[in-house]
Amino acid sequence: MNEGQSKLVADVKEHGWHVLNVFSREGRPNFSYSVGLYTTLGHPEIIVFGLSLDTGHRLINVVGDAIKAGRQFQHGTSSPDLIEGYDCVFRAVPRYLYPDYFGLGIWFHGDEEFPVLQLVYPDRYGQWPWEDGVDEGFRTAQPVLMDVPE
Fold it and tell me: Whole-angstrom Cα distance, residue 143 to residue 65?
């Protein structure tokens, strides 16, 4: 195990999850995701795009704390209290995309299958990334990993 993997395992044992921040590369935006929510709390892991890494990290911790307190999020769940002034919605991430986004999550979970939900938020005008007319920069910063938005 390398130092990063050791830190991940220690954080999951101590806090219940670890947050990984991935810098933009190859045309992909920044994103942050959890590892450990499924193992410790039986809840899907969470991924969020298009925020600063610090903000994405904090947001996943807010979601993790809510889960620890008894909340459950699933595909289609919306929540007005995760980002002040914005509704958020959760969408299931297709498993075929896991290798592209969840490298250390796959390492951590090993052969165990684990679900992932993407936390999606609207732009400042209330438009979702999949809606017609949304700013292309916003759509690019927050790709929706689900096959077909509802």
Answer: 25
Q: What is the residue extent of each domain of the chain? A: 3-141
Q: What's the rounded Cα separation, in Å, for the pair 59 and 48?
A: 8
78-83: strand order across its sheet = 18-22, 31-35, 45-49, 116-120, 86-92, 78-83
- Tens of pLDDT, residue by residue over 43-62, are 999 999 999 999 999 999 99
pLDDT tens digits for 73-117? 999 999 999 998 899 999 999 999 999 999 999 999 998 899 999
Q: Are 87 and 111 in contact (CB under 8 A)?
A: no
pTM: 0.93
Which residues lie closer than 8 Å to 112 by C-beta, 6 or more apart?
none
Produce one character per residue of 81-106: b if its CB has 16 or more CB atoms within 10 Å, e if not.
ebbeeeebbbbbbeeeebeebbeebe
Report in angstroms the alpha-carbon separations of 102 from 35, 51, 69. 9, 17, 25
* DSSP per residue, 70-122: T----TT-EEEEEETTEEEEEEEPPGGGHHHH-HHHHHHHTTS---EEEEE--
